[in-house]
Amino acid sequence: SSRPDAVSDLDDDDDIDVSWARPPPPAFPEPNKRHLTERKNEHAPPTPVSQKPKLSKAERRAIQESQRAAKAAAKEAGLKSTAMASDANTKQPKTAKISLKKDVNQVNSPVASDKKTGERPPDKDRKKDAPQPRMQFDDTHRVVKAKKRSVVRQSEAQNRVELFRHLPQYAHGTQLPDLESKFFQPDLMHPSVYKVGLQYLSGDISGGNARCIAMLLAFREAINDYSMPSEKILNRDLTAKISSYVSFLIECRPLSISMGNAIRFLKNRITKLPLAFSESEAKVSLQSDIDRFINEKIIVADKVIVSHAVTKIRDGDVLLTFGSASVVEMIFDNAHELGKKFRVVVVDSRPNHEGQGLLRRLVAKGISCTYTHINAVSYIMHEVTRVFLGASSVLSNGTVYSRVGTALVAMVAHAFGVPVLVCCEAYKFHERVQLDSICFNELGDPDAISRVPRDESLSNLKNWAENENLHLLNLKYDITPSDYVSMLITDYGMLPPTSVPVIVREYRREHVWI
């Protein structure tokens, strides 16, 4: 209102510029502006719109977790700096420190829980499930410590094979007399476990199922005679007892993979015993668990395998087997009882000649059989229609771990186009992966392959140990790759070797042996 008055006062002076005092041009109304901008946009070229790249759900979740972690770290750093400053200036009481720690834990708790769920597996006992590292016998320090606490006094072999120095190589025939002299020592070992160890060492008990059943029955008797000390807890003390029994059995003969699974099952049942159980109730529960394992996982499983495998046998078939597998013998017996006409070719090998016992039993039952050694398997394979093999274990990558010579028979059958059917109980499956027969194996008595049966005059290697340049190797097991196995027949049905991880996962979920 003052500016027009000032202009009127200065009208007489023409030299003064009063353009600043002119009123501004009238403003366009709001709709006109929009109209003009729309007309300009019609003539202007379209501007490219930058679109954000589409992220997947996993990428967005990763970004959110990283942002949360950064925020939590910043808050934690700020809280720590304030706490340090306050501690430096004034000594705070303990209650303030405790409250500060609680605040930090509350801030970090959601992030920590996110990290735990994202990085760690849901199973808290993952470390317990991992198999213990195997004893490496080329480590002299560990071997000396193991000898001090061992019950079996063993002496190393003279001519050890360098490639297998990580496996135990002891002189055979020296342990049995020493153990027999200690049999009546009461505090040494439970008699049933001691007896089974002697049978392992002498070779009276052989075969995966027979060894596992004998071990579990010995543990059952030991649990029945067990009495808990007053100052001990049953779960821990009984687990330590079972571990000492297992160590003794390993010294007599290395455990098979199936025996390791049975031991893990038993220890798992011991650790899960309710604390409210009395000693007698706990012993009855464990004995029933052992009986259930033997019945369901071995006896009934073999019957289920037989029912599946018999459907693959037809009249006129020529069936080949190697060695002596108990479940394969049951298959032949059942097929013969059903009236099927077939012939069995038994392939055998030195030094155990397990096939001779199978041959006698099959012939006694009226089954037509042919007997040959493994060096002639390629000459008879053209007559064979199916190959039935047993297995000591089936590994997670579909590899079959069985008696030495199984891989040779399976490869020859594959070359001739003959299907190879491997019969194995599911409790023998293992999550281990093995690609060769060197890392893990068992060495037998080297004298067994140097002796010639029934004629000692032909034994040219009688004093082979005196020659330092001669090394004899008697391997017990070999590895058959999954490419040479047509089908696995288990108590879960007939499945390809690629489905082994599914069976292992189902067993882990049911906590049957882990």
From TrEMBL:
Stretches with biased composition (Polar residues): 83-93
Positions with biased composition (Acidic residues): 8-17
UniProt biased composition (Basic and acidic residues): 31-43, 113-138
InterPro entries: IF-2B-related (IPR000649), IF_2B-like_C (IPR042529), NagB/RpiA_transferase-like (IPR037171)
Region (Disordered): 1-138
Pfam families reported in the protein's UniProt record: IF-2B
Coiled coil: none
Transmembrane parts of this sequence: none
Family per similarity comment: Belongs to the eIF-2B alpha/beta/delta subunits family.
Protein name per its UniProtKB record: Translation initiation factor eIF2B subunit delta
Gene this chain is encoded by: LOC103640610
